[in-house]
TrEMBL record:
PANTHER family documented for this protein: ION-TRANSLOCATING OXIDOREDUCTASE COMPLEX SUBUNIT C (PTHR43034)
Domain RnfC Barrel sandwich hybrid, first and last residues per copy: 4-57
Alphabetical list of InterPro entries matching this protein: Ion_transpt_RnfC/RsxC, Nuo51_FMN-bd, Nuo51_FMN-bd_sf, RnfC_N
Residues annotated as domain NADH-ubiquinone oxidoreductase 51kDa subunit FMN-binding: 85-250
Name of this protein: Proline reductase-associated electron transfer protein PrdC
Entry keywords, A to Z: 4Fe-4S, Electron transport, Iron, Iron-sulfur, Metal-binding, Repeat, Transport
Lineage summary: Bacteria, Bacillati, Bacillota, Clostridia, Eubacteriales
One GO cellular component, as annotated: membrane
Xref: Pfam families: Complex1_51K, RnfC_N
Gene Ontology molecular function terms on file: 4 iron, 4 sulfur cluster binding; electron transfer activity; metal ion binding
Species this chain originates from: Mordavella massiliensis
Length: 466
């Protein structure tokens, strides 16, 4: 194992402040950085010695021997479950990184249903109400090509369910629903068996389209409620937690284990083929390159390495470390060469930012001459990340395609969800626009269908007890 680099920002909020010095000996679970505002405790993931502290990371040289033991979180004997979650430094392990101790600090039993916008909820009656409060478990494995969430659900079903029950207890939710894609037959069988005596925990089946794991999409699919981009799931008397996050909650409460490891998928243009390599309980701070080598190494020339998912991930290098929120390491095929042709970018809240799409266009040797936004991509305030008005349920794109044509684009690069990509394809090619999706180079590398015309029904029905 090479040096472990623990980033000081692995969560929504401000970077943490180091509480160790260079030369300090550390163990698995030694507290090494604490929040300066909104954030979460950070711990050493290995036994070793602190060799350097920079503005953004703590570098640890691992010891030759790495015992399985860890330092338990430091909490009083009478600490509440919520205090244990906060002390353990758990964040949203699905990629969002919001501190879980903050998210679960709510009494859903006393939280009223917020006022719902009738324009995006036209089918709801005026007297609509939710009789129950919910923990909604995101088991969608939303980003294509990743498999670690489903593997954990199959292999650690009981731990995940324990974590869900703890989340229900802390938030006073009286129901829980696993939101899972219908295609995951094996995981569904495991869940069915484990939930047969759990009257208050059920499943809701999702279509295999992107972005079914987005928080408001989970609320909509499970509860039939559309929330505004500015509304949190609590507006629908619910809290959404990723299943890996739920498992970390169980570890913190049952074992007093700090959040020091991550499950992730390594996949793409690798020696031995493009099948998924799932690594469980990887020490936070291990390098991208080390995990790629464990998966077989890169097979020849490649385009880029993406940390995260193909839609929302970012390009990275082999030297960079994984964090609490890293879900995937994806090695792409080479980019096509557009030889300086005019390119239009269709920026969507469900995919990469404009900067990320410009990066992809540059790597394709394209000249960006036009930028449009999906009309449902909302900017809540200047400079804020875009939010989709109705994630996964999108309008037509004829107006944007006409603009691209007017701006003399030969190619367009889109970053849209499954449904939005479908609407682009309804008119773009007829106008002579050649379409690339920002995920194409990764989808080709992992053997996944390209995002173009939608070939699957968006509807997967299941009754919900309101």
């Amino acid at each position: 194992m090479g040096n472990v680099q623990i980033l000081l920002r692995q969560h929504v909020g401000a970077p943490c402040a180091p509480c160790v010095e260079v030369g300090a000996d550390v163990k698995k679970g030694t507290l090494i950085a604490t929040p300066t505002g909104l954030g979460a405790n950070i711990f050493s993931s290995v036994y070793g010695k602190v060799t350097e502290i920079t503005d953004d990371r703590i570098i640890i040289e691992p010891a030759a021997e790495q015992p399985d033991e860890f330092v338990p979180i430091d909490v009083p004997e009478d600490a509440s479950k919520l205090d244990m979650v906060k002390a353990a430094g758990i964040v949203g392990m699905g990629g969002a990184g919001f501190p879980t101790g903050v998210k679960l600090n709510i009494n859903l039993a006393e939280t009223p249903l917020a006022e719902l916008d009738p324009e995006i909820n036209p089918e709801l009656p005026a007297d609509f109400k939710l009789e129950h409060s919910y923990i909604l478990v995101n088991a969608a494995e939303c980003e294509p090509g990743l498999e670690h969430n489903i593997k954990q659900l199959v292999e650690q079903t009981d731990k995940v369910i324990r974590g869900v029950k703890y989340c229900m207890e802390m938030t006073h939710a009286d129901k829980a629903i696993f939101a899972i894609k219908k295609k995951h037959h094996d995981a569904i069988k495991h869940l069915e068996a484990a939930l047969k005596d759990e009257a208050d925990i059920s499943m809701h089946f999702l279509a295999d389209i992107y972005p079914m794991g987005e928080e408001r999409a989970v609320v909509r699919e499970c509860l039939g409620v559309n929330l505004l981009p500015t509304q949190l799931p609590s507006a629908a008397r619910s809290v959404v937690v990723n299943l890996e996050t739920a498992a970390k909650v169980a570890e913190a409460i049952d074992e007093k284990k700090p959040c020091i490891t991550k499950n992730l998928t390594v996949r793409g243009k690798l020696n031995g083929g493009n099948a998924a390599h799932v690594f469980m309980d990887v020490p936070v701070g291990v390098s991208v390159g080390e995990l790629i080598e464990k998966a077989g190494g890169i097979d020849g020339k490649y385009g880029e390495i993406v940390m995260g998912g193909a839609f929302t991930g970012k390009s990275t290098t082999v030297e960079e470390p994984i964090t609490k929120t890293t879900g995937g390491i994806l090695v792409s095929v080479e980019f096509p060469d557009l030889h300086g042709a005019n390119v239009g970018l269709l920026v969507c809240a469900c995919g990469g930012s404009e900067d990320r799409m410009r990066e992809i266009a540059e790597k394709m040797n394209g000249k960006v001459v036009s930028v449009c936004r999906c009309k449902q991509a909302i900017e809540s305030k200047p400079g804020a990340p875009l939010k989709c008005l109705r994630p996964g349920n999108c309008p037509g794109q004829v107006k944007n395609n006409l603009q691209f044509k007017k701006d003399k684009c030969e190619y367009i690069i889109i970053g849209n969800c499954s449904d939005c990509s479908n609407t682009v394809m309804a008119s773009g090619p007829k106008m002579g626009l050649k379409v690339f999706h920002q995920t194409d180079h990764v989808m080709r590398a992992v053997g996944h269908p390209l995002y173009r015309t939608l070939k699957i029904s968006k509807e997967v029905s299941q009754d919900i007890d309101f």
